């Protein structure tokens, strides 16, 4: 009987911990989109991984977008007319294109976007929301990992953003038939010369083409 009671008590504690973890789970979890580029598969007899067709992927560099992933949760995300984008902006002058910490692009290879070359580094990404016209913004504002009201040299999200550190502004916007529940950045149509950075949320798909630079 004692062991049975102990098992029941242990099970109740485990269920309580699971419920607590679910309750405290952030509604905008951190996420990242990454792609490995400019490498090549090389066959090394007797040493290459069979699962990769007898070849190893060597060389190459990473391109990564790190961001917060808010959920739609039945909201009207965009609105219309004078209220367009207000729900996403939450009082900020520009959208962070994610949640919490500013969305960041980290590139290990030069990228050419809108005719401008971005050397390897870390940049922040924003979107200027206008109805039927979104503008993709690459900025040199550093991201603040934890809110500090005394820090005037970095941004938390897009609060206190100013355009003086903008490096590029390019527009691109499409609609899609299905609604994406969790905001998602991804890489599309990758090739040996470049690809697309893409953001999906609700029925909007925003894409920005890029090429590999020198």
What is the topology?
Blueprint: H1 2-23, E1 30-42, E2 56-68, H2 86-89, E3 103-107, E4 111-113, E5 116-118, E6 121-130, E7 133-139, E8 166-171, E9 174-188, E10 194-212
Keywords:
214 residues; mainly beta; single chain; six-stranded antiparallel β-sheet; 12% helix; four-stranded antiparallel β-sheet
Query: Span from first to last CA?
Result: 73 Å
- Rough outline: globular
- Give the helices and strands as they follow along the chain: HEEHEEEEEEEE
Query: How much of the sequence is in beta strands?
Result: 35-45%
Domains counted in the coordinates: how many?
1
Number of strands: 10
Mean pLDDT: 88
How many helices in DSSP terms? 2
Low-confidence stretches: 6-21
Query: What characterizes the major β-sheet?
Result: 6 strands, antiparallel
Structure description:
The chain is mainly beta and 214 residues long. The protein has one domain. Helices cover 12% and strands 44% of the residues. The strands form 2 sheets. Strands 1-2-3-6-7-8 form a 6-stranded antiparallel beta sheet, with no helix packed on it. The chain is globular.
């Amino acid at each position: 009987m004692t062991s049975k009671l102990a098992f029941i008590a242990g099970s109740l504690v485990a269920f309580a911990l699971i419920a607590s973890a679910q309750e405290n789970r952030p509604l905008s979890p951190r996420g990242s989109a990454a792609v490995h580029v400019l490498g090549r598969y090389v066959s090394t007899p007797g040493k290459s991984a069979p699962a990769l067709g007898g070849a190893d992927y060597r060389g190459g560099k990473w391109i990564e977008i790190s961001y917060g992933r808010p959920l739609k949760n039945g909201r009207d995300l965009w609105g219309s007319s004078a209220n367009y984008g207000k729900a996403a902006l939450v009082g900020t002058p520009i959208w962070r294109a994610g949640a919490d910490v500013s969305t960041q692009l980290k590139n290990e290879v030069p990228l050419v976007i809108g005719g401008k070359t971005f050397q390897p580094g870390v940049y922040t990404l924003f979107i200027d929301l206008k109805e039927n016209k979104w503008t993709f913004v690459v900025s040199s504002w550093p991201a603040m990992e934890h809110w500090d009201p005394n820090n005037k040299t970095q941004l938390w999200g897009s609060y206190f953003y100013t355009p003086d550190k903008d490096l590029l502004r390019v527009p691109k916007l499409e609609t899609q038939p299905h609604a994406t529940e969790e905001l998602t950045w991804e890489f599309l149509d990758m090739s040996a010369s470049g690809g697309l950075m893409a953001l999906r949320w609700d029925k909007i798909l925003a894409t920005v083409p890029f090429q590999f630079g020198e």
